[in-house]
Design brief:
325 residues, mainly alpha, two-stranded antiparallel sheet, two-stranded antiparallel ribbon, 14 helices, elongated
């Protein structure tokens, strides 16, 4: 009986606790929730203009911001959500509270706000840094950022600030010209591949890394865009898309079975020179090339005869579809 009584008592405690969780609670103003995210419950929002009017050290950064895509949203007539310095750095009332006194004490050297009263973004872990951005962008850019948390970049402790430098100019998205060098900072092996004899035109900014890869994450390997690798490649190489009546089975699966997409020492980005590339799959038993006593074939490229290597709708005299017509 004692055990039953204890069990009933524990059950009642659990039920009462759950009931407490379901009680209605009043909603706080949005500003109060913002303070909780930032971690400063003792500060108030004062607006960018009030901050800058007292702290002129940040005039240049403020000018960059006002000409950026974020700063444009401050204009009420745009109808877009308001974004200002306090959206990322937190409420600034404490940061400028004593600035007049420090000016009188230190002169020109005291003309700056107390940044220790703001959110110290640099000291936050990368995941928390990204959350500052995702508070707005998880709703405004859901398709782009849907895979961010499980992306290779996020799992390797990169944050939004690793690529986007919001204080270095009004251009807050990475430009095509700067993108390659930015990616090379972590991927020096890819930089070396783009220096090889055959490569995609990245150096002239004809293409960018973002044309093929989604740095925010993807459902494809290597953060590739598209439904599949072939779907991605045929966005530019449409003549290879098919479908063909006579298909080369290997190339319908994966273009990288034959091509090195970043660069290669072989022509047309081939991962190996012909005929060595082809005989990795095909038995090198061609009568004209390996049979003793047969007439030698003076060719080193399979495509000299098999030119429709990606597929064809016209059969050859043997019922295949890869021979030159």
């Amino acid at each position: 009986m004692q055990r039953v009584a204890i069990a009933v008592f524990i059950l009642l405690m659990l039920v009462s606790g759950c009931a407490g969780l379901k009680e209605a609670r009043p909603l706080l103003p949005v500003a109060e929730y913002e303070k909780m995210v930032v971690g400063r419950l003792d500060a108030d929002y004062v607006g960018t203009d009030n901050c800058v009017a007292k702290c002129h050290k940040h005039d240049k950064i403020t000018d960059f911001f006002r000409h950026s895509v974020h700063g444009e949203q401050i204009k009420a007539e745009t109808g877009l959500p308001l974004v200002n310095c306090e959206s990322c750095h937190g409420p600034g009332s404490l940061a400028i509270a004593n600035i007049e006194e420090t000016k009188r004490t230190l002169g020109e050297a005291g003309d700056k706000c107390d940044t220790s009263k703001l959110l110290d973004l640099k000291q936050l872990p990368p995941q928390a840094q990204s959350l500052i951005c995702l508070r707005c962008h998880s709703a405004a850019a859901t398709p782009t950022l849907a895979n961010w948390h499980t992306s290779v970049h996020a799992l390797n402790d990169l944050s939004c600030f690793s690529c986007h430098k919001l204080h270095e100019g009004p251009q807050q998205k990475v430009s095509k010209n700067a993108m390659a060098e930015l990616c090379y900072g972590c991927h020096p092996d890819v930089k070396a591949q783009f220096r090889l004899f055959s490569h995609h035109p990245i150096e002239g900014a004809v293409l960018s890394c973002f044309d093929c890869h989604d740095p925010h994450g993807s459902t494809q390997p290597m953060m590739l865009k598209g439904v599949s690798q072939k779907d991605l490649c045929t966005r530019c190489h449409m003549e290879k898309s098919g479908p063909f009546a006579y298909e080369h089975g290997d190339v319908t699966e994966n273009c990288s079975n034959c091509h090195s997409p970043h660069g290669s020492v072989n022509r047309r980005l081939l991962s190996a020179a012909m005929p060595f590339l082809c005989i990795q799959c095909h038995n090198p038993g061609h009568r004209s090339t390996v049979t003793p006593g047969s007439s030698p074939l003076f060719a080193n490229r399979c495509t000299d005869c098999h030119s429709s290597i990606h597929g064809s709708d016209t059969p050859d005299n043997r019922g295949f579809g890869t021979l030159r017509k």
